[in-house]
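S.,

Sequence below, as promised.
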Amino acid sequence: MLPFKKGFGSLDMSKVRTPSSSNDMRQAKIGRLPALAAELIELKVDVIVAAPAGSAVAAKKVTSAVPFVFMAEPDPVAIGLVTSLARPGGNVTGLADAHADLIPKRLELLKQAMAASSRVGVLWNPANPSTAPQLKTAQAAARALGLAISPVDVKGPGRSDLDQAFAAIERARLGGLLVIADPTLGNHRYRIAELAIKRRLPTSGTHRGWVEGGLLMSYGSDFIDMFRHGATLVDKIFKGVRPADLPVEQPTKFEFVINLKTAKALGVAIPASLLARADQVLE
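The prediction came back faster than expected:
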């Protein structure tokens, strides 16, 4: 959230509050999100900022009066946050991360780094409502690319849950792994990278933070730019604009990042054509 706070510039940061139990968010305790949202309501805040993906649903469940701005929601219409992007309605607006639109691109790029196998695993957290629409998009996009999708769900937030998921991945003999990001998986991104490298499995994530954590590649929004811009929406609400009158905005800046250190550990030779398309190559 630091880029978001920086986005306020010279605005009065005394208006910004976080729940006393916000560590539950950092630890991805999704079941606690409604209680955290209720805590903010008790503080009588003027605006709620809901991030990361999945947290805005909790905010909507506890208030239809307090304005809130969501950040990085992949498909806010599909999960019922807003009526439409142009006319969100109610007390909600925000920034859509367009994960669903980007998934076909991620699969296409991942395919170029895979060996002969056409089987791709999709690691996802079914407890997060924002992830199911993305899984469906991946399944539809895979067919056009000649790929077969094998969903692998992570059944809880613990390390053992992740280990069980990778045991299933190993049994499935997959050729690559697409990670549908959420707070639970994000907290384990280094472990995910470690387990994937151990199994010689090329991986793709949603933004550069995953590549910095050890995944092979990512294609997605510039989160720093997105969160910084989110502050402008909050500022407009502070100044009296209704969320219903603020169209949901979508990212315009995307980046493709490759981790060559991971490629070397995997024994994968990244095609020169793919390297040429990368916005950044980590060595």
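Confidence is low (pLDDT under 50) at residues 19-28.

Coffee later?
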